[in-house]
Amino acid sequence: MRNQVSFSIEVFTADAEEAVADKWLAARRLTDAPLTVEKLEIALRKFGEWLAEHHPGIVSYADVTRDHCLAWAESLAQTPAEKTGKPLGPVTRNQRISALSLMFRDASAWEYDDVPGFAPITPRDAPRTQQRIPRFIPDHELDLVMPVINQITCPFQRAALLIARWSGARRDEIRHLPVDCLDHYPDGTPRLRLPGRKAYKERMVPLHQDAADALQRLIELRQNGPERPFTDPRTGEQVRYLFMNHGKLLSLYYLFNTPIQQACMQVGLVVPGGKKNGTGVRGTISAHRFRHTVDTQLAERGAKLHTIMKVLGHSSVSMALVYAQISDQEVLRDYKSVLAPGAVIAGPAALDVKSGVLPEEAVHWLKTNFFKTELELGHCLRLPAEGPCEPAPLWYRVTTED
């Protein structure tokens, strides 16, 4: 409580709301990551500040109506960000509205005092964000940058980028790999054990031999390292991390950003735009795009959706579908096969007809079956190699003999 002496309406209001918020945040800390709870806390604090300014007569969350919530959500579009001074973007506004909705929903379900018995605002009231197609790395760019990555001298950077390229793992998952993260399937294929970071669930994924070799070299270097184990904040277990130096975890910037930018500069994969508000060039490839690339290649080459979910660590099919996009090259091939000039849409035997090399047995079959149209069992003008048509209903039968 901020003030236990004054009993004014304003102080009571702040204290009552703060008590509910603190109680709810304490419960969320038991299940959510610290960064997630921090964002939830910011959203509730901003909502409380807005209420105190625009509706000082509200004495508790129980007096909050849907109109109050919608007015606050609308005001977020003009609220400046603390760091940039620019209006909040749709992602941040979405996060804050969803946080307030989650608090009302949980508090109502858990029968808190001083809250409505329902959620006066829901995530559906948040602004819709644009769904972008995940940007994978085209093959010709991979052919340029991968030889450079394979020549990186730092074993930490080289192993980190090769694991990102061949496993589809998130950068933070790679950074927190334990020393004993590598083993093999019964047939000898390398297998990587990824820690449960974002999804709170460990997973095992196959690993390309190039990445496994770089990882094994790093494991040998770190096997007898002097660093003490760290206590994992999520599991409480003692873990000896792989990507450590001088007793500290190496940064994401050192492991990924620096080497991938240097590789892009070396092969000319750059676009204008250096540091913020600066000049120069920057690389077109980021380490996270390797994750999109693994997913796209799996999808285009026929991997099952559940395999993609397993490799990427997604907990729902909808999440995997966002990433498992068909590339524009696949769309182009299908488009040309159907709509381009000279496209063949009559079946595989049409190519033989157009080229004049129809087999003799096919010609004989057409002669003997030309006037047969018994649709019930699928007799038609399709060649045997093309398979039967869809059978017609039993009540529709026409048979014409030669």
If you had to describe this structure to a student in words, what would you say it looks like?
By secondary structure, the chain is mainly α. The N and C termini lie far apart (97 Å). It contains 15 helices and nine strands. Helix 1 (9-28) packs antiparallel against helix 2. It has helices spanning 9-28, 34-54, 66-75, 90-109, 139-150, 155-167, 171-175, 209-222, 252-267, 288-300, 305-312, 317-323, 328-339, 349-355, 360-369; strands at 182-184, 190-194, 203-206, 230-231, 238-239, 244-245, 248-249, 270-272, 281-283. Helix content is 47%, strand content 6%.
Offer a concise description of the structure.
This protein is 47% helix and 6% strand. It is mainly alpha-helical.
General form: globular
What is the overall number of helices?
A: 15
* pLDDT < 50 runs, ≥5 residues: 1-13, 373-379, 392-402
Question: Total strand count, please?
Answer: 9
List the strand order in the largest sheet.
1-2-3
Biggest pleated sheet: 3 strands, antiparallel
**Mean pLDDT across every amino acid position:** 82
Radius of gyration: 30 Å
The amount of beta strand, in percent, is 5-15%
Give the fraction of residues assigned to helices.
40-55%
The termini sit apart by 97 Å
Structural class: mainly alpha
What string gives the helices and strands in order?
Answer: HHHHHHHEEEHEEEEHEEHHHHHH
Keywords:
two-stranded antiparallel sheet; 15 helices; disordered N terminus; disordered C terminus
List the helices and strands and how they pair.
Elements lengths: L8 H20 L5 H21 L11 H10 L14 H20 L29 H12 L4 H13 L3 H5 L6 E3 L5 E5 L8 E4 L2 H14 L7 E2 L6 E2 L4 E2 L2 E2 L2 H16 L2 E3 L8 E3 L4 H13 L4 H8 L4 H7 L4 H12 L9 H7 L4 H10 L33
Antiparallel strand pairs: 1-2, 2-3, 4-5, 6-7, 8-9
Helix pairs in contact: 1-2, 2-4, 5-9, 6-8, 6-9, 6-10, 10-11, 11-12
